Each structure stands twice: as C-alpha cells, then as structure tokens.
C-alpha cells in the first residue's frame, strides 16, 4: 500500500524455509515403532504446530512412547539434527528469498522448533548472519 512502510520481515522455519514435516513424522513414528506401538491415525496431524513440550507429552501420553517427555524430546531432536546434517530439506528458493529481502529489510525468524535445530538450519543454509 502506498505510504505504508514495512519495518521488517519475519519468516517461519518449518514449511516456509525447510520442508520438515515429513522428517518430523518419520522420526516420531520411528520411536513408536521401536517400542512396538501402533501409530494413531490422528497423531501426525495432531502434532503439527505443537511446541516441543506439547508434542513430547503427546508422544508419551497418547501414543505411549516410553520415557519422560523431556527424554523423548531429546531423542527426537537428536535424530532431527542427524537428518539435517545428512541433508537439509530447504524449500526451493528459500535462501534466495531470505537474501533478497535481507538486503532491504531487517529479518526475523519465528519458530516453535528447538533453538538447536533453528541454529543448524541457519548455519547449514548459510543464513546465520
């Protein structure tokens, strides 16, 4: 709109910069399978957008993955780190868009992902600066 000045651009991480939902689902399903648990039909959709404390409590309380939520969260995040280390699932054009917009406006990142994963994505994508 004419006259309106944009002050900054804020990106989300999952689904905007990285295509990660499928990886999250694979890792969480893997934990359930290791415990010989069946995967509830609604579990994948239910956990989308949840914070780490929320989805780890869901995995232990609803799915039945053994362990305390904090331990389950640490295991899932460790496995996600390993997945990102072997191949970061950047969405096409994500880096270019961030660089182009960053040359004009201050940038921010909003995410419910653990800080450890955020840092890995930014570092491996060359966007940490």
Can you put this structure into words, describing what you see?
With 129 residues, the chain is mainly alpha-helical. It has one domain (9-124). It has helices at residues 21-34, 43-47, 52-63, 69-86, 94-102, 115-124; strands at 9-12, 107-110. A two-stranded parallel sheet has the order 1-2. The longest helix is centred in the middle third of the chain and has 18 residues, at 69-86. It is elongated, with a radius of gyration of 17 Å. The two termini are 30 Å apart. The mean pLDDT is 93.
Number of discrete helical segments? 6
- Give the class from helix and strand content and strand pairing: mainly alpha
What is the share of helical residues? 40-55%
Let me know the average pLDDT. Answer: 93
Number of β-strand runs: 2
Order of strands across the main sheet? 1-2
Shape: elongated
Between the first and last Cα atoms, what is the distance in angstroms? 30 Å
Query: How many domains, in number, for the residues?
Result: 1
Largest β sheet strand count, sense and barrel closure:
2 strands, parallel
In brief, what are we looking at here?
It is built from 6 helices and 2 strands.
Entry keywords:
HAD_sf; 6 helices; 53% helix; 6% strand; PGP-like_dom2; single chain; two-stranded parallel ribbon; HAD family phosphatase; mainly alpha; 129 residues; HAD-like_sf; elongated
Secondary-structure blueprint:
Layout: E1 9-12, H1 21-34, H2 43-47, H3 52-63, H4 69-86, H5 94-102, E2 107-110, H6 115-124
Parallel strand pairs: 1-2
Helix pairs in contact: 1-4, 3-4, 4-6
Organism: Pseudonocardia acidicola
InterPro entries: HAD-like_sf (IPR036412), HAD_sf (IPR023214), PGP-like_dom2 (IPR023198)
Protein name: HAD family phosphatase
């Amino acid at each position: 709109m004419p006259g309106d000045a944009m002050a900054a651009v804020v990106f989300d991480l999952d689904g905007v910069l990285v295509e990660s939902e499928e990886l999250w689902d694979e890792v969480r399903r893997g934990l359930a399978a290791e415990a010989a648990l069946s995967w509830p039909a609604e579990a994948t959709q239910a956990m989308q957008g949840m914070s780490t404390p929320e989805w780890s409590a869901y995995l232990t309380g609803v799915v039945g993955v053994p362990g305390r939520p904090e331990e389950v969260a640490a295991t899932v995040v460790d496995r996600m780190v390993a997945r990102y280390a072997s191949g970061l699932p950047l969405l096409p054009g994500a880096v270019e868009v961030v660089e182009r917009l960053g040359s004009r406006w201050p940038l921010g990142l909003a995410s419910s992902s653990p800080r450890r994963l955020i840092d890995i994505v930014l570092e491996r994508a060359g966007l940490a600066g």
